[in-house]
Amino acid sequence: MLRLGIIGTNWITKQFIDAAQGTGRFELTAVYSRHLDKAQEFATNYDDEVALFDDLTAFLNSSYFDVVYIASPNSLHAAQTLAAVNAGKHVIVEKPMVANVADFAALDAAMAAHPDVFVFEAARHVYEENFHRVRDFIADHQVTGATLVYMKYSSRYDAYLAGREPNVFTTKFAGGAMMDLGVYLVYAAIGWFGVPQHATYQPTMLQSGVDGTGVMHFSYGDFDVNMICGKTTQSYLPSEIYFGKDTLRLDAPESITQMDFTTPDGTQQLAGPQEDNPMAPEAAFFGDTIEGGDHEACARQLQLSRQVHQVITNMRVAAGIKFPGDER
Ligand SMILES: NC(=O)c1ccc[n+]([C@@H]2O[C@H](COP(=O)([O-])OP(=O)(O)OC[C@H]3O[C@@H](n4cnc5c(N)ncnc54)[C@H](OP(=O)(O)O)[C@@H]3O)[C@@H](O)[C@H]2O)c1
Questions:
Q1: Residue 9 falls within a domain, yes or no?
Q2: Which of 76, 149, 205, 223 has an alpha carbon 20 to 30 Å from 178's alpha carbon atom?
Q3: Could you tell me if 87 and 9 lie in one domain?
């Protein structure tokens, strides 16, 4: 059984713990929060005996857990991952794993010094069966283009409009539409079509310095992929992948439940069933990979993360979106 520690006590951590416990491979044994009473309150949701911490260094260097799930604000991910690897802990870190691809260099050095440690970015959708079905379908068909959309009005945008500073709408915490939701689309595009020859981002900026919405364009030479992400507007558009006169239509690239393949002869439904908890497939992969000692599988996923963040950092910097850590 893998002993799990967590950083970040919002709803997403509960959803991940449910998924992890559901695999039968993880038990919750340690909780870190900046406030001990919050850690205590969080732990009351679970029957397990849980060690509580409000000191991050003491938490990471404790012997109460083997794997840490990190769901803190984006800009903290890379440094917390680095500290955890240096403490010899396996890491499952929420997307986006880094705010700037340059942070991967320090992580690579730490992983080289701790070759037994596993590190994963929790890009949950790439582990889903329907994501793999799309990838396999594309491998057998000639793509002529795609339009991918993930634009969801954020519950925190109202707080932003009211003059407050939710983390996800600040540059301080590496927020904005592309870092929060666009990352799912970039994962889909690179996972399905490969690294683009050229990538651009046209953001609509908020006064706080982050992008509220934006349009990404990836060119692949003989076809293009256009993507829209946003946190200040609600979209109900599906996504589409084109094969000349035939079209594969997805209800949502970050959580596919419908895959309609339409040709001039009619429409076929190609999606398989989806797990109730969208984090279940990734939790199963992480548990199997760590317990099976499969470093190659981990390295393959990390290489995809590296490609995703290289493209995102390039697009972000070219679009003039600056984060405090960029000068490092
Ligand atoms: N995979 C998914 O489906 C999914 C869904 C939602 C979010 N996420 C990812 O999960 C991460 C957390 O998102 P969120 O919306 O929960 O973020 P958040 O509410 O801003 O912060 C998450 C946690 O970090 C701690 N925290 C908050 N502000 C902090 C600060 N100023 N300094 C240090 N720690 C702070 C808090 O825990 P304590 O108060 O206990 O320290 C909080 O519970 C993000 O990276 C996001 O991209 C993923």
A1: yes
A2: 223
A3: yes
Q: For residue 241, with 0-12 CB atoms within 10 Å meaning exposed, 13-18 middle and 19 or more buried, which class applies?
A: buried
Burial class (CB within 10 angstroms; exposed 0-12, middle 13-18, buried 19+) of 128 = buried
**32 CA from centroid of ligand 1 (Å):** 12
Digitized pLDDT (tens) for each residue of the chain, 328 residues in all: 999 999 999 999 999 999 999 999 999 999 999 999 999 999 999 987 999 999 999 999 999 999 999 999 999 999 999 999 999 999 999 999 999 999 999 999 999 999 999 999 999 999 999 999 999 999 999 999 999 999 999 999 999 999 999 999 999 999 999 999 999 999 999 999 999 999 999 999 999 999 999 999 999 999 999 999 999 999 999 999 999 999 999 999 999 999 999 999 999 999 999 999 999 999 999 999 999 999 999 999 999 999 999 999 999 999 999 999 898 7
Pocket test for ligand 1, best of 6, 7, 9, 10 (most atoms within 8 A of CB): 10
Do the domain assignments include residue 234?
A: yes
Domain count, the chain: 2
CATH number at 151 reads 3.30.360.10
Find the domain containing 190 and state its range: 129-274
Residue 146 lies in a domain: yes
Query: CA 219, 75, 306, 317: dihedral to nearest 10 degrees?
Result: 40
